[in-house]
Design a protein that fits this description.
This protein has 144 residues and is of the alpha+beta class. It contains 4 helices and 6 strands. The strands form 2 sheets. Strands 3-2-5-6 form a 4-stranded antiparallel β-sheet.
Amino acid sequence: PHPNEPRRLPSPTSTERMAPKRRRTDSAASAASASEGKAPEAMPSSHTILLMQPEKSANSRTFFDYERPSDMAADVVKKYERRLRQLNPDTNDFTYDIEHLFAYIDELADLSALVFNAQTQTYAPFGRDWIKRKVFNNLRRQSQ
């Protein structure tokens, strides 16, 4: 399916229902280069940290570790789909389009990402719009 077309969700498996709140990846960030303002998406591995605060309460702050920005983008979609299942426990099939997914991202109290830049040995910060672009590009790649 095209990223702008509705997506159909499969029924959740038992492992999806028991997904951990935090995800940890212990692999070290590999050498990657990035130009200023751009995340090193084309590199084989660019350690990425997603900082998420779903609600206004500071207690809802959490983070997630990924080996690369595309892994983060895929997990943002999974988090949205998990949320749909929580809100509609009696429904097995869901359809949604990219606008619904982006509305979910916008409704989070806070969302940002830090992407490792091996050239400077620092993490570059990115906001919601960058995350939305990564999600869109990831869905587009999946549909091809």
